[in-house]
Request: fold
Amino acid sequence: MRWAVVGATGLIGRRLCRHLAAAGHDVAAVSRAGTPVDGAAVAVRWDPAAGGLDPAGVADRDVVVNLAGAGIGDARWTDGRKREIVESRRAATRGIVEALRADGAPRVLVSASAVGFYGTGERECTEATPPGDDFLAATCGAWEREALAARAHGVRVVLTRFGIVLDAHGGALAKQLTPFRLGFGGPLGGGRQWVSWVHIDDAVRLIERAGADPSIEGPVNVVAPRPVRQREFARALGAALHRPALVPTPGAALRLTMGEMATLALHGQRVTPAVALAAGFGYLHPDVDEALRDLLR
Reply:
């Protein structure tokens, strides 16, 4: 199959391009700078802030994967940053949908979202669970509505609601490694909040499956089958590094240093991948202890 990956230079995008190429797919990497990416045969430059995506960027592509958007955890959530988080996602997705409309060939759009769609709390969430009512839920809802507009043009739309994607080289896991390696790791806040996680290899495999399988449409939770409490995640991370996990980071300290963005660390979602399991998707790393050992070996 012929794939275009928009946002190809990010953590998931780079791994996805390599995975797709290794599986025999033809890959075009779309990014603001048009940076060549391992595994991609073609590099396409597109800055969503500068205008719509040239339809040539997605021409003859069977699947377009949308991973574009300002990083959720890259900077404090000032009012301006929150607008950027929302509008960067809406603008990029709108540009992709318009390019698909102009190109005119029915195909597949696999568009990123997040488990933040469900809000936070104790309830177990599947793809059928209604949205929450906080900032992240509103962001995901606006993002998904832009993607769903492609259905009017004959496009099959899959909404990949990502949990915490684990990779030792970036993202949330990489930020925790130094304190744990120094022996100062432990739970964040009270440690009871849920962590809905997924190994990056399973994340990219599920994206590939969603793009290739015509029976999959709508929201897909990209998480492992067994979410864990944050204190259990900290224990597993310490064990994988052969370090203790006894020094908690107080919630007040996180709020002081991160502001409203501390929500990402102190509140979570208990999410299960009902659609993936119903489709018979086989996880390589369903257990958090094994997944962390694999990533950190």
Observations:
- The domain at 2-163+199-223+270-282 is CATH 3.40.50.720 (Rossmann fold).
